[in-house]
């Protein structure tokens, strides 16, 4: 351990004054080498220093790692299934040396964070997400499997890069593409029927299509659609509490969502479900959705069917002076929303004018969620949000920012609204429940658990999410909530020596204790030195 620290210290001195990205990348390389050499020590270091190292092995540095992955590559990690492996996937899966796999994170590299198509270089994302599974959910590192489906790339720069490690062909489309994913899912569920498969960073069309295609057939979920939606919903309910209002006030919140992709639409679908649970009469949520062409209304030509339910009826918004394609600043000025939520992938789109317009919000505590990743793609910085939108805002970002010094001893709290607060618990709870698929009820239980985690006092101080230092505790609680929801829906079949009968008779606290302790690898326990 001492050697490691002196190594880091030496690098710190060498890199003093260097660009932040260079320093972060250097830290990632040190950790990656440790990962290759001594897996147990790597996870021990990660768990003990999760606040310092999550931003290195996960968002935002993992984005930079993916952009440079072919050059950084030293040793393979995980499995790569290419379009050329068609017909061979079953035997490939049976070649994986571990007897049991519990968690798989799968990507095709087509939408890596807000960085676009990075082809096979996107493998960094499954690796980082699974590191969080080990660190936060205590999943056995020998039972995780990062997977890349290499169906080609449409990134011309990568296709021309002599170092690029993936297939040099345009992405497969249509049935050809789906047949590859089908074959992988069949193979994996044949060998490990209880493994949970997390789909990550697929471009929108395939994210929705595969979720619909597999969610009842296999034990899988899409983190960008479903995990993000739960984290965002917890944050949105937190902003209602921060206003000192009862949760039913959620019905009257005006929410502007910028980005009509897999994440933005996932959030809106979940928010609409939450609204319908709160009222028996037909609700008409005041949600406004924008994409790269501005405000989406029913007048939009070639509207995406997934966005259509959220398109505004021109008559409804005419009174506000809004029309199809209205710009973001126009929408914010006229709607005076309670919440401005960005999942657009466009850095800086919440510019000074937009943020200043949030000062006129109808909320006593306007909320700004700049959820796009990595840092350069955040819709605004924390400093700009507090500077332009005012000191009484609630602020959250997908990538970490420092808290903001507001002067006079006051601090603007920065929340990290990232799906890392839910996916490890969703995976852990599903695994321990032994459910064959992940129901809406299990996902709802996860979101509600996170939403009720913070105290009123913390919420009043603008703290909507736990600190990353408590990620193991929140993951255990989310896991327990997921297990209990699976039991309530009669989906739980148990795991290992914990059968469905034992699960049914367990209290919430007992389920939580199991989630906290049961799956934790003993040599990684905090007491292990
Ligand atoms: N914080 C989190 O936990 C979290 C989770 C999932 C995704 N994200 C981030 O959200 C971003 C989007 O992810 P996605 O999967 O929805 O991507 P996507 O490609 O499916 O969707 C992006 C959407 O943004 C819209 N857009 C593009 N330019 C715009 C502009 N100038 N103004 C308004 N809208 C614009 C596009 O039209 C599209 O609807 C990414 O940066 C990703 O990293 C964050
Ligand atoms: O990876 C993250 O940090 C969150 C999310 O899954 C994303 O795609 O941005
Ligand atoms: Mg993602």
UniProtKB/TrEMBL annotation:
GO terms for molecular function: malate dehydrogenase (decarboxylating) (NAD+) activity; metal ion binding; NAD binding; protein homodimerization activity. (S)-malate binds at residues 111, 373, 418. Its main location: mitochondrion. GO terms for biological process: malate metabolic process. The keyword Oxidoreductase applies. InterPro entries: Aminoacid_DH-like_N_sf, Malic_enzyme_CS, Malic_N_dom, Malic_N_dom_sf, Malic_NAD-bd, Malic_OxRdtase, NAD(P)-bd_dom_sf. Heterodimer of two related subunits. SMART domains: malic (SM01274), Malic_M (SM00919). Belongs to the malic enzymes family. Residues 35-215 form the Malic enzyme N-terminal domain. It comes from the Eukaryota. Residues 225-487 form the Malic enzyme NAD-binding domain. The active site is at 58 (proton donor), 129 (proton acceptor). Keywords: Metal-binding, Mitochondrion, NAD, Oxidoreductase, Transit peptide. It holds the Pfam family Malic_M. This is Malic enzyme. Divalent metal cations. Prefers magnesium or manganese. It catalyses: (S)-malate + NAD(+) = pyruvate + CO2 + NADH. GO terms for cellular component: mitochondrial matrix. It is found in: Mitochondrion matrix. Its cofactor is Mn(2+); Mg(2+).
């Amino acid at each position: 351990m001492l050697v490691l620290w002196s190594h880091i210290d030496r690098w710190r001195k060498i890199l003093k004054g260097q660009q932040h990205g260079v320093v972060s990348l250097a830290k990632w390389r040190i950790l990656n080498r440790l990962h290759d050499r001594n897996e147990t020590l790597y996870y021990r270091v990660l768990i003990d220093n999760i606040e310092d190292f999550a931003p290195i092995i996960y968002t935002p540095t993992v984005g930079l790692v993916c952009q440079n992955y072919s050059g950084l590559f030293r040793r393979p990690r995980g499995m790569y299934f290419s379009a050329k492996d068609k017909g061979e996937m079953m035997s490939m899966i049976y070649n994986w040396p571990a007897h049991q796999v519990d968690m798989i994170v799968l990507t095709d590299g087509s939408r890596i964070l807000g960085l676009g198509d990075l082809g096979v270089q996107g493998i960094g994302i499954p690796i980082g997400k699974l590191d969080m599974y080990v660190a936060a959910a205590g999943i056995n590192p020998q039972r995780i499997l990062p997977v890349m489906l290499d169906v080609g790339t449409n990134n011309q720069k990568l296709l021309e890069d002599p170092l690029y490690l993936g297939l040099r062909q345009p992405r497969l489309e249509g049935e050809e593409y789906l047949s590859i994913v089908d074959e992988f899912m069949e193979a994996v569920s044949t060998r490990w029927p209880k493994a949970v498969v997390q789909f990550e960073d697929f471009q929108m069309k395939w994210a929705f299509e595969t979720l619909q295609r597999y969610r009842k057939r296999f034990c899988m979920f899409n983190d960008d659609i479903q995990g993000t939606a739960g984290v965002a919903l917890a944050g949105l309910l937190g902003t209602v509490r921060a206003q000192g209002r009862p949760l039913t006030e959620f019905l009257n919140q005006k929410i502007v969502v910028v980005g009509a992709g897999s994440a933005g639409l996932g959030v809106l679908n979940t928010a609409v479900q939450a609204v319908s649970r709160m009222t028996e009469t037909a609700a008409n949520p005041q949600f406004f959705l924008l994409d790269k062409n501005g405000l989406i209304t029913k007048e939009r030509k070639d509207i995406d069917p997934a966005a259509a339910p959220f398109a505004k009826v021109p008559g409804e918004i005419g009174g506000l002076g809004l029309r199809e394609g209205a710009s973001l600043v126009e929408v914010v000025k006229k709607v005076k929303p309670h919440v401005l939520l960005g999942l657009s992938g466009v850095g800086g789109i919440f510019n000074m004018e937009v943020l200043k317009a949030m000062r006129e919000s109808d909320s006593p505590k306007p909320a700004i969620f700049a959820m796009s990743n990595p840092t350069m793609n955040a819709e605004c910085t924390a400093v700009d949000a507090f500077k332009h939108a005012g000191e009484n805002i609630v602020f959250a970002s997908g990538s970490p920012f420092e808290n903001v010094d507001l002067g006079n001893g006051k601090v603007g709290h920065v929340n990290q609204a990232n799906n890392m607060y839910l996916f490890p618990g969703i995976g852990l709870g599903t695994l321990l429940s032994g459910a064959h698929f992940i129901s809406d009820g299990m996902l709802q239980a996860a979101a509600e658990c996170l939403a009720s985690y913070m105290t009123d006092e913390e919420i009043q101080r603008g703290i909507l999410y736990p600190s990353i230092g408590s990620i193991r505790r929140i993951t255990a609680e989310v896991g327990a909530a997921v297990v209990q929801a699976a039991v309530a829906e009669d989906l739980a079949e148990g795991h290992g020596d914990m059968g469905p009968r034992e699960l049914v008779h367990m209290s919430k606290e007992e389920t939580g204790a199991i989630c906290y302790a049961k799956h934790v690898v003993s040599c990684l326990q905090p007491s292990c030195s």
